[in-house]
Specification:
With 292 residues, the chain is mostly helical. Helices cover 81% and strands 0% of the residues. It contains ten helices and no strands. Helix 1 (2-14) crosses helix 3, helix 4 (48-60) packs antiparallel against helix 5 and helix 8 packs parallel to helix 10.
């Protein structure tokens, strides 16, 4: 099939007067260059579909050096000829480059209406806009919906775009899944870390509680020892004072006893002396028959 297509392009390129035989070797090395020459000839004759194709080939660098300015020129020519797809293409490029304004907002509303009415090219470009978030919030699901409709209605580019969107949806889901898994793992790690910290704090609190209890008990024991020591000192002092007082009492009694004995002895001595000097004046005088 490709050989037949190549042969057909070759025959067409051979018939183009605008190109010399010197251009023929280019055809054999690059089939797309022959297609470009063919499309340019049709475009120059006013074929709006060919004008659009030339614009696309300039845009993509297919068969010709990539030139976005030339692409814009050919898209504008095609749109001016009434080619709807070129109109949508220019809207897409304008919004992509400059954002929405009053004019492009109106055109976007018309594009939506035409897509909803079943225009496959409108569906295709609306799908592209949703896929890239151009003029509308990015939505891969909406993009896939409109691209699939366009592909079903015969737009081959929409099929390729839809495949790319499906791949992006899968990639986004995988990334979300990875993020969820990473978030879950992080959450588990954080929970485990929190539990470790909580356990450590609990252990530290328990250790501190025990240390506080031990400290209080030690303080109580020390206070009890101090109190007991103080009681022993007080008791010892009391006993010492009592012993000293008892000793003083004993010494006092002994002193009194010695004094009494001394006085008794003295009295006895005095009595003896008095009796000897005057028996009737002594205490024993009443027992003497000689004394009255």
């Amino acid at each position: 099939m490709m050989r037949i297509f190549s042969y057909l392009v070759f025959i067409i390129s051979m018939s183009l007067p605008a190109f010399s035989n010197a251009a023929l070797p280019l055809f054999f090395t690059d089939v797309s260059a022959g297609v470009f020459r063919f499309q340019v000839k049709l475009a120059n004759k006013g074929n709006h579909e060919a004008q659009y194709k030339v614009g696309e080939m300039y845009e993509l660098g297919n068969g010709v050096t990539k030139d976005l300015q030339q692409a814009q020129i050919w898209f504008e020519k095609s749109a001016a000829s009434g080619h709807k797809k070129a109109v949508y293409k220019l809207l897409y490029l304008d919004v992509s480059a400059n954002g929405l304004n009053d004019s492009t907002k109106s055109q976007l509303r018309a594009l939506r209406q035409e897509a909803a009415s079943g225009n496959p090219n409108a569906q295709y470009f609306l799908g592209k806009m949703y896929a890239s978030g151009i003029g509308v919030p990015k939505s891969l699901s909406n993009a896939l919906t409109w691209l699939n409709k366009a592909a079903f209605n015969g737009i081959s580019e929409a099929e390729h775009e839809a495949i790319a969107v499906e791949e992006e949806i899968v990639r986004v889901k995988e990334e979300k899944s990875k993020k969820r898994a990473a978030s879950l793992a992080a959450s588990k790690n954080k929970k485990a870390s929190d539990n470790r910290v909580k356990s450590q704090k609990k252990t530290q609190a328990e250790r501190k509680r025990r240390e506080d209890i031990a400290k209080r008990n030690a303080q109580k024991d020390a206070q009890a020892r101090r109190s007991a020591e103080q009681r022993r000192r007080v008791e010892a002092e009391r006993r010492a004072q009592a012993a000293e007082k008892s000793q003083q009492e004993k010494e006092k009694l002994a002193t009194m006893e010695r004094k009494r004995k001394t006085e008794k002895k003295k009295a006895k001595t005095d009595n003896k002396a008095s009796f000897e000097s005057d028996p009737c004046k002594s205490k024993s005088a009443r027992f003497l028959s000689t004394c009255r």
